[in-house]
Amino acid sequence: MARILLVDDIDNFREMLKRNIKKAGFEVYDFPSGEYALKNFNVGKYDAAIFDLKLKGMDGIALMERVKKIDNIPIIIITAYGDVEIAIKAIKSGAWDFIQKPFDPDGLIFKLKRAIDERRRALLSKEGYEIIGDSEDIRKAKELALKVAPTDTTVLLTGESGTGKELFARAIHKWSKRGNKPFVVINSAAIPDTLVESELFGIEKGTATGVEERIGKIELAEGGTVFFDEIGDMPPSTQAKVLRVIEEKKIQRIGGRTDIPVNVRIITATNRDLNKLLKEEKFREDLYYRLSVFPINLSPLREKKSDIDLLANFFLKRYSVLLNKKIRGIDSKALKKLKEYNWPGNVRELENIIERSIILSENDLITEKDIVILKEEKPTSLPLDLKAAGDIGRRKSEVEVIKKALRISNNNKVKAAKLLNVSYKTLYNKIKEYEI
Predict the structure, then answer these.
(1) pLDDT per position as a tens digit, 340-374
(2) pTM beyond 0.70, yes or no
(3) Exposure check for the chain: N or C terminus, fewer CB within 10 A?
(4) Where would I find the beta strands (DSSP E) of 11-150?
(5) Domain-located, residue 130
(6) Which domain holds residue 393?
(7) Is the same domain home to 46 and 191?
(8) Which stretch of DSSP H or E encloses residue 66?
């Protein structure tokens, strides 16, 4: 269970966050001030931290700087809209990210999980973003990534979900001359049309009554890399704006009158067929040619099963450490079972299965019975009852689209409900009913 340090001087707000973080499966240590938190801080005690920017006494940035000298854990800063400029400085000083009030606690939980996972990956890999595999496909993809990394060329990563597109994007950034600068992820499908410009380009202070200045994600990545995930799902109106950034290296905030030069590298990824989208006029041809200067395709795991041994043992090593269980290996029958499976969820599914097998294992060797693969129900197992069969089909469809909406919205249930065109309560009840 990951341990979180939470520091906020507003008792009710801190208690609310604590409840939500604990509900997500974390252990929480909360304090009303930086001074109290430091008295209880030891190396290795926490996996991540959340600090409010405005604290009585020592503020969030000062606390972060003190903590970083003791232990390099990821720290998320909570800010009000008017504090954004200070928050940017916090990121440059070492904060993992910042989140603006008001916010959905689910969004904070999502960031926590990513921060912890990213740190653990770094601890288990010399380069921080190790690409595992020795098949011809993976060697070719890694070779291309290494060649393009030192340049500023735009990269398009293609492949099914779970093939490691974000891992490759982070590796290209890490191996580039921008490696010590920000890496900002933008989920192209998750931003509603009405919020695209403010999210990407920011807002000038005073644009409307009460509106504070807001820094957009592209400006936040200054000097580093912007990773547009699921670029194939980006609305056409947004595509035109991204094209301008690539061609002119400039942005303009909402309400602003002057162009702001930006120095960022663009990496994109998609699991969709962009050529098909071009024919359907759902993707701009000019943007496509700008993005596909250097394409890298990541093949599905079922086409490179020779990598399963290496990947399984890599995940075994990782999760044995994280779950604090001494596992010495995987037996031959278990490996045979892994190689016979078709892997619709690709490497991500393999990782999840190995983690689950370590939890289930009752000895120091993973056996066939520990490898639990959650297969889809076969048509032959359906009941000979039209209504009952229809109910099963509806359930499967609803589970699939709910999972997709949650993935697109970065697990933000409010956004997911809007994407699904249902109320938050309906979505919440469905998630509970289907145990998603």
Answers:
(1) 998 988 998 999 899 989 998 888 899 999 998 86
(2) no
(3) N
(4) 27-31, 48-52, 75-79, 97-100
(5) no
(6) 379-434
(7) no
(8) helix 60-70
